[in-house]
């Protein structure tokens, strides 16, 4: 490719000349920490059908009801006016209660991280990414696929901290070698000491949640009132579709609401299995379950921060296996977005892949699902990087590869201009003769250091050079990248007194036996 | 995953019951042959800046001019009122001539294929895909990367014919083992005998183009008037950016315009190299070059079908290597779409990848670029499958993998409904108890055979099953898929008389020495 070698020569020459007037290393001023969704919103259903879906969900809550396994939750629903049948544990919620809850649920949630430049706001129009979460297994090309360990948890946490485009911490893998009664100390301490991003706590019973809240208050130096006054942490609430709310999830909704912390309510439903086979039916079911959970949070503490959520894809009807990044998954995100806007609430959706390794299928499914979320106007996109096997594993290499795509999306959030300087009639277009080149125009000289996004894993070398370098594909290049990030990782500065107090708390609670998870 | 095995059992049972009432093999009635773009359009620049870019392009054509190497083209421009300097071969085109050309260029082009169900219309809002085109090399996992041969050309043609989502034939690879003076007989005969889709002819000089037009007229049984009266074929015109129109390209514009066939005008520009470093500057240059070519077609034959086009990405400023599927490539597509709508013309954009093999980078770049085209409202998306190394090779496996993504996009074109039947309060939601499943609801029974898109290369098997089957990634699964398509390929029915006449024509012209390409 003569053009390339020409270009290379030109650019080296220009680069040398350019050194004097421009920074030697490209520095691009793009803020990936607080993003606004720049993409136009897509609708899959006309608005009257969206209204019908909302109406049907209200009718479901009134006539079909939710099964709620936690007695305290049933008491709160009953006290709020819901009809409760204690024998069947069924709760029937009136539309007036839903409307009251929607009136108090905040439309905008300021999320306080460990440092002010990490704060962000959850509201319609903002865009937040989380890496793939909740997997029992970790996998990479060096160590293979294995049950996830504490070390895997820590390493994923460092990778999440490294990329600004992940604004929230997610529980990427389950540290299975840490005993369950003290696992929440391990994961909370790690989130406090290795990152200053917005942390996640599992809802596995009140004792664990109270421990986590106290640890975070110690680490942030907050009084009980100060902690309750703002969102410092979040949890994910998965209803048990269809129409069931289990004990730890109900406790989580109550605990996080009481303490003013964020619940992201996400029914995880598969069309044709635990949800109707149609997008409309599955999302109507999901919508009803979110509303039921939202009512519980507002009955517990009016104004408590709660985020609408959905994760709906389809099963393969030949095998029954879950599928992700499919057209139905895409349409489900669009429908959920329309319903979230119908309510005016911030909401989360999900990308993801069913592939068993970081291959072309994994890339195509993940990005296809991602664009569904982006065009649906999702506020939070979870499982946006690293998630494989429908959530049974998270891949180190896939996290690196997906972060490239998310960075490119973040670049698009910054937009572009076409003013006189960018069009450049005098500084570029008129400077170059027919069949000439633009390597050295005034406009190029001004901008060559910062014009374009520079990838971390994508490789633009031509076939010859790439072959000389060993013909390494993106998946294998990603291994060296995550290894380098881990080898050079530096955690954010800590307050030593608070760290000490945190460690004392953990030592004491561990001695007391910790807190086993609720089931 | 108990859910899965449960589901599998359930579904086998249901499938057995289902056999009686439903077709044994799922048949989904989705038409991929005539698509409308369902995606909302994204704008990268405000409309006043788009107007400024158009104004700047008009100023360029008036003040800076185009270098036109073909004397006949300069005569046509001069006869149409343009100021021509024969010594410098420069042509200066007034805005009045551009406005006159835009007034006669058709906004809608009916493209006649070899069979009526293959016809489609090029206009704003319609969506047409072409596989990757113009590569000197072919690559697959069985035979490796090699200079493309006639066999490669024929095999790619069969794969293109196989997938309905490719509505147009593209010249995927150059059959380098076929002599250049008879190569156009080989490629045209193949496009006539192996497919009934809309064919492509290179603009490599008037003699070759006249041969191709005559061959197609013979094959379609068309008189000269009938052939000229409708679009039966197309060519791609690449200007030599910046601001140069070479001899074969100028001849192609004139020949296709005279015969009422489609020219897709596509400046191929790389920001920072042969185009300005900014999206606004690069697209302004590209826009000016398209307008110059468009003026030539309309001066030659007012009303001649011409399609606006662009293919603008950026170079890597560190190495000078071309990059594709980048944020700047995405924004360039958006800007070109705004300018095409400013003119009201159908237009083509391009996806593509710089990767050297069918890996995760190739998948992510190609799909990222694809979404740029879709949200830009491109009428034709070229290089949408198989294109690697920035166009230096086309991959058999990548073509299969990308076709999966295009099929899923085509599924989204069909949309979805949320009527009473789809919401299914009585046929699904009310039929299932809390924590139950929807495998056997009335709604599921009606739809399980046709509810979801069924992938050809994506694999939903869980890790255990996938491992038992040999842990084959999507790239290697794709090999078996293209081999099977080729092994079972059946060309559409032919009229034996016309085939005979075509072969006689080729034999005679070959004996006469064929037609060497113009350069």
Automatic annotation (TrEMBL), chains A, B:
UniProt cross-references to InterPro entries, sorted A to Z: MttB-like_sf, MTTB_MeTrfase
Pfam family, one: MTTB
Chain segments carrying region Disordered: 1-31
Keywords for the protein's UniProt record, in alphabetical order: Methyltransferase, Transferase
Biological processes per GO annotation: methanogenesis; methylation
Protein family membership: Belongs to the trimethylamine methyltransferase family.
Protein name per Swiss-Prot or TrEMBL: Methyltransferase
């Amino acid at each position: 490719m003569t053009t390339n070698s020409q270009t290379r020569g030109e650019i080296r020459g220009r680069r040398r000349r350019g050194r004097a007037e421009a920074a030697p290393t490209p520095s691009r001023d793009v803020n990936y920490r607080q993003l606004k969704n720049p993409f136009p919103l897509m609708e899959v259903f006309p608005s009257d059908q969206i209204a019908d879906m909302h109406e049907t969900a209200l009718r479901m809550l009134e006539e079909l009801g939710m099964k709620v396994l936690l007695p305290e939750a049933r008491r709160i629903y009953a006290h709020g006016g819901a009809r409760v049948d204690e024998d069947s544990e069924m709760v029937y919620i009136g539309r007036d209660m839903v409307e009251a809850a929607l009136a108090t649920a905040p439309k905008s949630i300021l999320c306080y991280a460990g440092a002010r430049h990490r704060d962000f706001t959850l509201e319609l129009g903002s865009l937040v990414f989380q890496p793939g979460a909740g997997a029992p297994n970790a996998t990479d090309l060096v160590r293979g696929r294995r049950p996830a360990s504490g070390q895997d948890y820590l390493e994923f946490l460092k990778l999440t901290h490294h990329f600004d485009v992940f604004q929230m911490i997610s529980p990427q893998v389950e540290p299975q070698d840490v005993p369950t009664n003290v696992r929440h100390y391990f994961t909370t301490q790690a989130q406090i000491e290795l990152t200053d991003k917005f942390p996640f706590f599992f809802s596995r019973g009140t004792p664990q949640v109270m421990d986590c809240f106290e640890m975070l208050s110690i680490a942030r130096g907050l009084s009980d009132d100060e902690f309750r006054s703002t969102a410092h942490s979040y949890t994910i609430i998965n209803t048990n579709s269809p129409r069931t709310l289990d004990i730890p999830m109900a406790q989580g909704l109550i605990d996080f609401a009481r303490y003013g912390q964020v619940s992201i309510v996400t029914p995880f439903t598969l069309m044709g299995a635990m949800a109707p086979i149609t997008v409309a039916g599955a999302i109507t079911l999901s919508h009803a379950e979110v509303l039921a959970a939202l009512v519980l949070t507002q009955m517990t503490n009016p104004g408590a921060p709660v985020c609408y959520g959905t994760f709906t894809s389809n099963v393969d009807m030949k095998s029954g296996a879950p599928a992700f990044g499919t057209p139905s998954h895409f349409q489900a995100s669009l429908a959920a977005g329309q319903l979230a806007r119908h309510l005016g609430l911030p909401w989360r959706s999900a990308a993801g892949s069913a592939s068993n390794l970081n291959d072309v299928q994994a890339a195509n499914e993940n990005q296809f699902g991602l664009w569904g979320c982006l065009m649906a106007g999702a506020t939070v996109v979870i499982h946006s990087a690293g998630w494989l096997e429908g959530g049974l594993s998270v891949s180190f290499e896939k996290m690196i590869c997906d972060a490239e795509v998310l960075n490119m999306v973040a670049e698009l959030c910054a937009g572009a201009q076409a003013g006189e300087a960018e069009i450049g009639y005098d500084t570029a277009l008129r400077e170059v003769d027919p069949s000439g080149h633009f390597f050295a125009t005034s406009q190029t000289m001004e901008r060559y250091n910062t014009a374009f996004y520079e990838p971390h894993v994508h490789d633009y070398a031509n076939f010859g050079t790439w072959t000389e370098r060993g013909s390494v594909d993106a998946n294998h290049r990603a291994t060296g990248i995550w290894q380098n990030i881990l080898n050079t990782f530096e955690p954010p500065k800590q307050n030593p007194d608070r760290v000490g107090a945190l460690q004392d708390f953990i030592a004491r609670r561990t001695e007391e036996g910790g807190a086993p998870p609720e089931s």
